[in-house]
Amino acid sequence: MLFGLGRIRGGVHPDGHKADSARFEINSHLPLPDTLWLPLCQHSGEDAKALVQVGERVLKGQRIAAAAGRFSANIHAPTSGTVTAIDTITMPHPSGLPAKAIILQPDGQEEWIALTPPPDPFAMPQEELATLVEQAGIVGMGGAIFPAAIKLRQGRRFEIKTLIVNGSECEPYLTTDDRLMRERAVEIVEGARLVRYIIEAYRTIIAIEDNKPQAIAALQEAAANVGAIEIVVVPARYPMGSAKQLIQAVTGLEVPAGKRSNDIGVLVHNVATVYAIQQALIYGKPLISRITTVAGGCVGEPRNVEALLGTPIRHLFEHCGGLIATPARLLMGGPMMGQVLPTTDVPLIKGSSGVLALTRAEVNEHMPSPCIRCGRCVDACPMGLLPLEMARSSKQDDFDSAQDAGLRDCILCGSCAYVCPSHIPLVQYFEYAKGELAESRAGQQKLTYTQDLMAARKERLEAEAAAKEAAKQAKKAKNKVKKPRKTAEPAADTAEPASTTDNAGA
Ligand code: SF4
Ligand code: SF4
């Protein structure tokens, strides 16, 4: 389907709450925390494998955990110091479940490993650049936490016509991308050129919502003399930052249900990811820090900080004016799609675009009441789904019907729940149903895998038995041929050699 340029289907206009944190420059000078907690899983795949021992001293930028599989990512020491433990910590996730992490005590020296940036990345083979991005441990920093190198390689496998650098940042409160674009526009433009070179895109667009005029101006200026990089302004409307919606708004094209953006020749990378790629390919720097928004009505001085990965969230609050009221809700990410945090004793990770401490008034909690079938959720859904039907089926554990109503295409953006006058926690139902389906799929995959293994074993054993039997038969046949025939006059056989010997001796 073709949409009018600049438009998306559905969507909502939540209060932005962006001004408080957007007005200050990024603070890149936070004091070092006493401890850094570095979870082995800060990406979409398997836990990375720790490469260090307790008691070992590590240097800033040193690889301390290795990617374990395609969707996993390397982890590097954010500063120099000593590994004091490899233990479980509480993850920044609503479950508060423990996860394994490398615990690092900074020594205050900030002693870097020797960095080895490539001399001229634009003269290197693209695959080698994707490998450097992989080695730097870069994941999608807009929330996807999917290793960035996979997307770069996909870009080379598919014919990518358009690269979209996503600077829309539509979640309320979050201003990390806004400040990054205002303050590091030249680096972002260079990063966009690098990604364009790697994936061989024909067209490169940096898309920004119209509520970020300073970021638009900074990027226009940075791109002015570079050529072939378009700055496209899109209307501020949630969830404009979602890849499929941004593609609709920028190109007018819709990614069909069940397909990915690269199927229609478009690749979307977040601005923070593009910046991290530029830092890796120009300066040889691995991903060891990120810019994050610290905001919400409970925060004394909301702003953006550039903090080391592994920094405890409480340390961020302490250095942003402290918590001036008891938060009604702590969030990692924005209020629409963020994760509720169980405590401030969790670390900043690669995907943390913001940490929010919200007051009761900001949380706006209501008791849910029955659905009045007003249809507002249907109008708000940017994916054209039937949220009320999906929620009803999910509630009844009827996951097939929920899928029929579009669950698979739901991006969990929360627009439906935002407009629901009955305050039904629609997204919670969808998360539950998706979780159950994923578990059942994983169980089915495991079963199929086990069945395949058993079938292969049976086949192997049968083949071995058949080979054994064939060898036995062959040996039997051979013996039959070799075995001397029993005759009626055995004495005649032995008599012959004797006469031969006699002749030889003559
Ligand atoms: S918006 Fe809420 S009340 Fe209205 S139809 Fe959807 S679920 Fe029901
Ligand atoms: S959460 Fe899912 S169903 Fe609700 S509006 Fe977003 S995409 Fe549609």
From TrEMBL:
Membrane topology: Peripheral membrane protein
Cofactor or coenzyme needed: [4Fe-4S] cluster
E.C. number(s) listed in UniProt: 7.-.-.-
Cofactor: record remark: Binds 2 [4Fe-4S] clusters per subunit.
SUPFAM superfamilies for the chain: alpha-helical ferredoxin, Nqo1 FMN-binding domain-like
Entry superkingdom: Bacteria
Family: Belongs to the 4Fe4S bacterial-type ferredoxin family. RnfC subfamily.
Domain 4Fe-4S ferredoxin-type: 359-391, 399-430
Annotated gene: rsxC
Function field: Part of a membrane-bound complex that couples electron transfer with translocation of ions across the membrane.
The protein's name: Ion-translocating oxidoreductase complex subunit C
Residues at which [4Fe-4S] cluster 2 binds: C381, C410, C413, C416
Subcellular location as annotated: Cell inner membrane
Protein residues bound to [4Fe-4S] cluster 1: C371, C374, C377, C420
Stretches with biased composition (Basic residues): 473-485
Region (Disordered) residue spans: 464-506
Subunit structure: The complex is composed of six subunits: RnfA, RnfB, RnfC, RnfD, RnfE and RnfG.
Protein keywords: 4Fe-4S, Cell inner membrane, Cell membrane, Electron transport, Iron, Iron-sulfur, Membrane, Metal-binding, Repeat, Translocase, Transport
Residue stretches of biased makeup (Low complexity): 489-506
One Pfam short name: RnfC_N
InterPro entries reported in the protein's UniProt record: 4Fe4S_Fe-S-bd, 4Fe4S_Fe_S_CS, Ion_transpt_RnfC/RsxC, Nuo51_FMN-bd, Nuo51_FMN-bd_sf, RnfC_N, Soluble_ligand-bd
